[in-house]
């Protein structure tokens, strides 16, 4: 519905709440939702106000196809500086020879590497999705599975961890051109050094997808895969706590191929406002404050795992080396779906996930993936995560007092406010 005052002159200076109260109200509701529940989705985080500001900046107006100094448009002198700062900070943070900061998201970062070094039909070896891998690591319905001949390794049934002997045996059998390590639901350290040995033994290249644990790497709390990998891909918005986006790091010898694969190979104009926000996120990730935050993410994950185990629940691998804990419900009457829905009722937001050797289909699943980055960002400490574990355990019972459990979650949210100084989206500022 057009407002009577929607003149061109008015629209040129009006704010969101004035022009589009419907969307402003929905954004306000989303802010309230984020504030009013305990966010435990392992791939989510609450980014910094400075990053939100950069994402909402005028750099969104700029076309800049190409790379700094080599653009197809005029007027790129400022965004060139922004992108150069982002590239330099990414390289410095992770000790990489080359960075491409243009991927719109993690899937595009992975696609960039595949396009850079693979031809359709080439063989690739990656962790299977149901053992903790990722869609873009060769799932049949994904472009990766359609374009390339993916083969998969899994985790050992005994330890639920990657078995490097099995990976080597599989690599010798498959003779892949590229080995992919990393994933989205693997709670233990990704040992890129061991994958490197295997890659060298079979003459393959190695790509590490550190989307989930890149914040821990930046903080020195997870081994850095960069020295061992030809390519490292990541998102920026998970543990790294930046804007929703991706990036690729690689060895200099692959720099030109990676850059060409992304543009003109795959994406068009880069999102320079998001690249500005990535630069800010990389700057923050190099601070002592960020290292301290990541230390708390890790400690909280250990406290969560210990709390769940002491309440009688099963945790995959008996714990975690990262920010991520996988609840294994195979030996309970709960499905992952039912658990997710119950936890939603008590204001804990999680996602169901298959666990290795799951007999249930992915839409139902027998696991729940739980991560600590977002709640840690709003100040949760180990005692708070002990309480979260107790709320989870209390919720997954037949006679759970849902109202009382929800009130315990709400008390934690009240104690640890999210974006306390942010006034929201409903106020119009001329
Ligand atoms: N969707 C992301 C995750 O939840 O891990 C991966 O792309």
UniProtKB/TrEMBL annotation:
| BP terms from Gene Ontology | glycine biosynthetic process from serine; tetrahydrofolate interconversion
Q: Give every Serine hydroxymethyltransferase-like domain span.
A: 16-392
Cofactors needed by this protein, per the record, are: pyridoxal 5'-phosphate
The alphabetized UniProt keywords are: Cytoplasm, One-carbon metabolism, Pyridoxal phosphate, Transferase
Pfam entry (one): SHMT
Database matches in Gene3D superfamilies? Aspartate Aminotransferase, domain 1, Type I PLP-dependent aspartate aminotransferase-like (Major domain)
One Gene Ontology MF term: glycine hydroxymethyltransferase activity
One term under GO cellular component: cytosol
UniProt-listed InterPro entries: PyrdxlP-dep_Trfase, PyrdxlP-dep_Trfase_major, PyrdxlP-dep_Trfase_small, Ser_HO-MeTrfase, Ser_HO-MeTrfase-like, Ser_HO-MeTrfase_PLP_BS, SHMT-like_dom
PROSITE patterns the record matches = SHMT (PS00096)
Location comes to: Cytoplasm
Major location (coarse): cytoplasm
NCBIfam families hit by this protein: PRK00011.1
Its subunit composition reads:
Homodimer.
Record-stated family:
Belongs to the SHMT family.
Full protein name: Unannotated protein
Native source species = freshwater metagenome
């Amino acid at each position: 519905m057009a407002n009577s005052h929607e003149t061109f002159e008015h629209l040129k200076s009006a704010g969101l709440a004035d022009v589009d109260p419907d969307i402003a109200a929905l954004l306000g509701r989303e802010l309230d939702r984020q504030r009013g529940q305990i966010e435990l989705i392992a791939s989510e985080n609450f980014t910094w106000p400075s990053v939100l500001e950069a994402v909402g900046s005028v750099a969104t107006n700029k076309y800049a196809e190409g790379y700094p100094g080599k653009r197809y448009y005029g007027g790129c002198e400022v965004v060139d500086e922004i992108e150069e700062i982002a590239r330099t900070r990414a390289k410095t943070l992770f000790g990489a020879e080359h960075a491409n900061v243009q991927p719109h998201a993690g899937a595009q970062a992975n696609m960039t590497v595949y396009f850079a070094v693979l031809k359709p039909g080439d063989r690739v070896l990656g962790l299977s999705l149901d053992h903790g891998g990722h869609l873009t690591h060769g799932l049949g319905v994904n472009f990766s599975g359609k374009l390339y001949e993916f083969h998969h390794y899994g985790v050992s049934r005994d330890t639920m961890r990657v078995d490097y002997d099995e990976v080597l045996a599989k690599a010798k059998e498959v003779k892949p051109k590229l080995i992919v390590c990393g994933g989205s639901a693997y709670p233990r350290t990704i040992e890129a050094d061991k994958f490197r040995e295997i890659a060298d033994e079979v003459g393959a290249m190695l790509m590490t997808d550190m989307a989930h644990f890149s914040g821990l790497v930046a903080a020195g709390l997870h081994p850095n895969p960069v020295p061992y990998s030809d390519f490292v891909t990541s998102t920026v918005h998970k543990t790294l706590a930046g804007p929703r986006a991706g990036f690729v790091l690689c060895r200099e010898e692959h720099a030109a191929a990676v850059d060409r694969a992304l543009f003109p190979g795959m994406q068009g104009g880069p999102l320079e406002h998001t690249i500005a926000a990535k630069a800010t996120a990389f700057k923050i990730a190099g601070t002592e404050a960020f290292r301290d935050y990541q230390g708390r993410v890790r400690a909280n994950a250990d406290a969560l795992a210990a709390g769940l185990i002491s309440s009688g629940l099963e945790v995959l691998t008996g714990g975690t080396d990262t920010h991520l804990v996988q609840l294994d419900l195979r030996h309970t009457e709960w499905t992952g779906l039912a658990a997710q829905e119950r936890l939603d009722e008590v204001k804990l937001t999680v996602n169901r996930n298959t666990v290795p050797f799951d007999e249930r289909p992915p839409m139902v699943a027998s696991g729940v993936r739980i991560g600590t980055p977002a709640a840690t960002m709003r100040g949760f400490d180990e005692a708070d995560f002990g309480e979260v574990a107790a709320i989870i355990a209390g919720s997954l019972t037949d006679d759970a007092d849902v109202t009382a459990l929800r009130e315990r979650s709400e008390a934690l949210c009240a104690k640890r406010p999210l974006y306390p100084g942010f006034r929201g989206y409903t106020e119009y500022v001329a």
